[in-house]
Fold:
Amino acid sequence: MTAIDDPSPGKSPLHALLAPDSVAVIGASNNPAKRGYKAMLGLVRGGYAGTIYPINPKADAVLDVRAWPSIDAVPEAPALALICTPAATVPELVESCGRRGVKGAIILASGFGEAGADGARLEEEMLRRARACGVRLIGPNTSGVFNLHHRLNLLALDRLQPGDIGVVSQSGNMLLSLALEAEHHGQVGFSTYVGPGNQSDLGFADYLRYLGEDPATRVATLYIEGFSDGRAFLDTARRVSATKPVVVYKSGATAQGQRSASSHTGALAGSYPMTVDLLRQAGVSVVSYSDDILPVAEGLGRLQRSPGRRVAVIADGGGQATIAADRLAEAGLELATLAADTRKMLAAVLFSQASTVNPVDVAGTTDDHPSLLATCMEIVAADPGVDAVLLVGMFGGYARRFDESLADDEMRGAEAMVELAGSGDKPVVVYSLYAPARPPALGRLRQAGVPVYDAIENAVNVLAALGDRGAYLDRPLEAPSAPARPGPRGQDLVANARHEGRHLLEPEAKALLAEYGIGVLEERLVRDADELAEAARAFAGTPVAMKVVSPDISHKSDAGGVALNLEGEAALTEAYADIMRSAGEYAPQARIDGVLVTPMAPQGVEVIVGLMRDPTFGPVVMFGLGGVLVEVLEDVAFRAAPLSRGDAAAMLDQLKARRVLDGVRGAPGVDKNALIELLLSVSRLMEAYPAIAELDLNPVIAYPDGYAVVDARILLANDVESAP
Amino acid sequence: MTAIDDPSPGKSPLHALLAPDSVAVIGASNNPAKRGYKAMLGLVRGGYAGTIYPINPKADAVLDVRAWPSIDAVPEAPALALICTPAATVPELVESCGRRGVKGAIILASGFGEAGADGARLEEEMLRRARACGVRLIGPNTSGVFNLHHRLNLLALDRLQPGDIGVVSQSGNMLLSLALEAEHHGQVGFSTYVGPGNQSDLGFADYLRYLGEDPATRVATLYIEGFSDGRAFLDTARRVSATKPVVVYKSGATAQGQRSASSHTGALAGSYPMTVDLLRQAGVSVVSYSDDILPVAEGLGRLQRSPGRRVAVIADGGGQATIAADRLAEAGLELATLAADTRKMLAAVLFSQASTVNPVDVAGTTDDHPSLLATCMEIVAADPGVDAVLLVGMFGGYARRFDESLADDEMRGAEAMVELAGSGDKPVVVYSLYAPARPPALGRLRQAGVPVYDAIENAVNVLAALGDRGAYLDRPLEAPSAPARPGPRGQDLVANARHEGRHLLEPEAKALLAEYGIGVLEERLVRDADELAEAARAFAGTPVAMKVVSPDISHKSDAGGVALNLEGEAALTEAYADIMRSAGEYAPQARIDGVLVTPMAPQGVEVIVGLMRDPTFGPVVMFGLGGVLVEVLEDVAFRAAPLSRGDAAAMLDQLKARRVLDGVRGAPGVDKNALIELLLSVSRLMEAYPAIAELDLNPVIAYPDGYAVVDARILLANDVESAP
Structure:
C-alpha cells in the first residue's frame, strides 16, 4: 500500500485513503439507527477485502467482526479511520489516530463550521490537531466515501454497480439521486465517491486530482455548493480536463439558492456566472440542471469528445425530429448539411415520402424493418460534413409497438449501431421513447457503451458537452508568455500612493496603463490659469471634458466635478472655476490636485473592462458592453488571469450582444484585436502589480481602429506587502 | 347519439365524431402490417361497444367482424368513418361517405399538402368534396384518435389508462412518448386524443373547444407545430382556459426547428416568441421542454391552480433544498418567508441542527421517522405566508434506504399528506429520488391526486404553472371598451392615400395618431422660404430636426433627407437646401411634398411600439425598448389586439430590461401609465382602421411625465376593402 506521505511526485495522498488495506471504524455500533452501524454494514456487505477494526469500548464484536476498545489497542496502524462519533469527541479522536500512525480520517459528524461560531472553533481545533499529528481529513459533515473497485463502501448504499464515473458531491442526497438514476437506467456504474463536507483539510481540488489519477475513473463528476480554494480547483481542473472529462453542477445559480447553500455547508457561493465562466475556461463541462448530471457524465465518460458540432438526426417521427432540431440549435449545435450523395443513398433505402434533409425522417419506412435505422445512421456517419449522429424515436420499442417478430431485427439494428459507434470517432447517441422500459435492443446498446436517453433534452445536452470538449481539446495551445514585470514609473506611482495611504488618482492610473501599452486619451492636468490656457491652446478645435482630480473625491459627478463638451478658452475657464467651487463646497476638506482636461472621445461602441481579486478564485478579468442596458441585463464575461489570447477572444465571443461588436444598424464593426490586446495587457498588469486590488476601465470606447480608455480607476489593496 | 349538426348552441360537432355509436373502417385489413389492421385491432381489443363496419371488398370478415364491400352497402349510416386507404383514393371515398350520410371522417393517409404541390391540390379537392357533402374531416396525415372513456382506440396503443388528460398532438410519436411516460409513472391517465394532422377542415381550435366541453377532461394538452387559424385558437383558448388548464408545447422555437416542422406538417410556424406571448395572454400554460409536458399537464389537471407564488420547501437533504431554491427563483417563484410561530413549531419537532428557514432542512430528524415530513408540511401549509408546499428528497425510499420497518411510518406520512392536500387550496407537490422505483407510499400519493415527480425541475415547473394560472384567473376583469371608430380626419387621410396608391406620409401618420390622443411632437411641414422662416420663428431657442417628406422615399437617412440638432434660421435654411438637393439627387423622379420641422425630443428612454397583422394571429401589438442592444437581444413583448389595460401593463413588465423603465444609474423612471395609454390607443387605432397593415412608432421617447413619438410610419394594406 502506498503510504500517505508518498514521495512519488504528483501522486495524490488520497490513493492511500480511498483504497486502504485496513479501516478502523471509530464508533462502530450494533444499533441499526447509528451511522457506525451503517458504515460497518457497508463494509461487510460490500465485501471489503481489507481488515476492519471496529472501535467500541462496550462491545466485543460489531456485525460479527472483533471489536477493539480504542484505536490505541488495535494491533497495526490502520490505513484509514472512519470517525462516526459526535462532533465534540472528534478533535481528541483525530489526535489519537495520529498517535497510532493513522494517516487519514473521515469525519461524519456535523455540528462544525456550518453550525455557527462554536462549531467553527471546534473545526479549527480539530484541524490544528490533525495538522500537528499528520492526519489528513475528509469532512467533517461528510456523507462518506466509496471505492467500488476496491469494494470499500462506507455509505451502505445497495445495488451500486462498479463503473467509470467518479463522483464528488457536497450533498449525500445528490449522490443517492445519481445512484438511483443509474440503477433505473441500467449499465451505469461508479468508481469512487467522496463527500467533501466542510472541506476543512482536503477539498474539491484534492478529490478532483485523485479522480484524475484514478485509472478506474473515465469521467469526474462534481456537485459543488462552494469551494474552499477556487484557484487550486481551477488549476487542478485544467490539468485533469486535458485527459478526462470533468462534469460540474454548481448550485447557487440564484441569490435564493446561494443562501440555501450557505446554510447547508457554510460555503461562500460567489458569483454564479463568474464561477461558470472560470470553470469552462479550465475545460470543465458545466451542466445547468441537476437532471443533466448523470446523462452528461455517462455520455462524456463513454464517448469523451466529438470532432465538431454538426449533428445528423435520424428520426422515425416528425415531432421528435423537430424537437431535436430546436434543442440542438438552442444548445449551440448545428444540423449538419448532408451531401447530395448522402441524400441519394438515404433516398435509395427510404420511402418516397421520407425526408432526406437533416433531420432525416424515415416516415414509416422502418415500421416493419427497424434495423434500417442503423443503415441510415451508417450512411450519415460516413458523410464528412457530419460530426455526430443522434437517433430519436421509437427504436427499441418496435417489437412492442408493431409486432413481436420485429425483436430480432431490432437486435440486428442494435448490433449494427454498436459496430458503427466503435468504428470511428463520431459519437453515436440514442434517444428512445422506450428507454424507460429497457427493452433488450437498448440494453445491448448501453452495455456496449452507446448512451441511450429517455429525454431528447438529455441527449442533446450530451452532444453539446461532447462538442464543447472537442473544441476545448482542439484549441491552439499558446506558449506561456514571459512573466509580467512592473515598469519603473508605475512602481513609483504605486509606492507613492501606498505611502500616502490612498488609491491611484485618475492621471496616475492612466500613466500606469500607458506604461503597459494601453491606449489612453491625451490629457493634461491643469492647476492654474496658465496651465489652463496652455491646455485650451493644445486642444483648440476639439471639444474637451474636464474632471476634478482629488484623492478625497471618488464620485466626481456627485461633487459637480465633471464638465463635458467644452470648446474655447472662455468655456474652459468658466468650467474650471465651477468645478473648483463645486468640489470645494461638496468636500471642504478635500485635497484638490487640479482638473484633468481630455479631448471628448469620438462616438464608438462603449465597452467596460474590469479586474478584481476574487476571494476564492484570485485575479479575474471581466469584459462587457457598456451602457445602461447591459448593466441591467448583466451580459458580461469573466476569465481567470493570466489570460491567454484564446481566453480573451472567447470573452468577446461569449457576449449575448456580441453582434454589436461586429457592427449593427449600419455601424462599422470594432477592432476586436485591439480589445483582445487590451484584455491581455490588463491581465499582465494585474500579474505585475500584486498591490492592485481592483481596476475599472469604464467606459472604453471601441472604434473600427483601436479604442480609447475614457475613465480609469485603480484601487490598491490595504493588506498587500509593499508593491514591487 | 348527438347528431353532427346538433343545433344546441355552442356544442362542438366533435362530440358526435369522438363518441360514435358506430364506426366504418374503410380499408380494414387482416394484414398486420396495414393501418387498417391496427385500427381494427384497437377497436376490437379496446372493447369498443358500438358497431364496427369493416369495409373491404375482398374480405368477408376482418378480425372476425363481418366486413362490407363498400360504405354504400352497410345497413345504417355509420357515425364516423375511418379511412385507411392511400391519399389518391380519399376524395372519392369522402364523397361516398357523404352520400351514405356519414357526418365525419378520419383520414390517416399522408401525401397531401405536406408533400408538395400535387398533394396540396389533392387536399383541396378532398376538402371541396367534403364541404359539398357535409362531411367533417380529421386529418389528413393524422396519427388517429382515441376516446378511452368511450373505449374508442383507433391507434391500437396498449396499456393506456382512462384519465383526465386530453391530448391533441401534431406528432403521433409525441402521443406515444406521453403514453409511455404515463405508464412508467403510474396513475396518469388520458381522456381523448386527436392527431390533427394537416388540419384541412377541423383544426386545433376545434379540438380545444371539444376538450373544453368534454366533462372527462380536466386539462387540455397540445403539441403544436403550426396553426391553421391562430386567431380562432386564441379565442377558443381564452374561453377554455377560464374553466380548465390548457397546456401547450409549441415546437419551432428556433429557425432550425421551424424548418423541420414545416417539412413535417407543412405548417407555417410563425414567430416563436410572439406565439408564446399570445398563447399566455389567452391563459395558456406554455411549457418550454417536451419532458415538461406530461408533468405539467398532470399537475395542472390535478391541482388546477395555486393561490400565489410563495412556496415552502421541506427537504431531508441540503443539496436538493439548494437546487429547489435555485429552480424556484429561476421559475419566478419565491421561497415563502416563514412566520416566527411557524419556525418555532418546526423547531419543536426537529433536531437542533435542522434549518427552519425556508427551504426547511430536517437534517436527519426524519431518518427513523419519515412521517414527520408530513407534520412539517402541515406546519408550513398553515402559515398564511405560504401558497404551496414542495417536499423534496427521499420520501418513499426511507424503508429501502434505512430500514424496512419504516414502511408503515412512510405510509402514515403519505396518508397525512393526502389529507393535507385535500384540506385546502394550497397545492402539495412531491419530488422524490425514489419516484422511479414507485414505492407504495408514493403510489398512495399519486392515486390520491398528489403529484409525485422524479426531477426537481419538473416539480418546480408545475408549481410555476399553478402560480401563473392562479394569477391569470385572479386578474381583474375589465369591461369591454366601446368599439373603436375612425375619426373624420383620419378617414380622409387614409382614403386619400389609398386613392393615390401610397402609404401614409409621416405628417399624415402623425395626424392620425393625434386624432387618437397619441402625443406627437409639434411639427410643421415647410414647402418654401416663407414657411421655413415662420417655422424658425415658431421654434426659436429650441434645436430642431428636419426630415424630407416624400411618398417615394422611405429611407430618409439614406437619401440625405434628415438633419438633426439645428438652431437658428440660418442653419435651418442651409439644411433645407441640403435636404432638397440630396433628395433630388437620390431619387430624381421623387415627388417631394416638403420638409418636416420638429423640435428635437429631449433625452429620455427610447422605446418602440409596433403593430402588424400576422397572417395567422391577426392584429398584434409589439412593445420593446429602443436602441441597438435591444434590437440585438430581441427583448420585446407581443399581445394580440385589442389589448386590455392589463395586457398593456403586462407588456411593460415582461421585458428583461424592464428595470430601465423604473430608472437606473440615477435616471428617473418613465411614465408607465402614459405608455400603457399609448399601447391601448394604438390597439384601438388598429381596430378602427382595417386598412392599416402595419404601424411603427420608432423611436418613442418616454419621460417621467408623458412621452413623445419621434418617428411614425403607417403602411396601408393593398388588399383591404375601402377604408371605413
Q: What stands out?
A: Residues 351 and 395 of chain B are 18 Å apart (CA to CA). Chain B has a mean pLDDT of 91. DSSP finds 25 helices and 30 strands in chain B. The first strand of chain B starts at residue 22 and ends at 26.
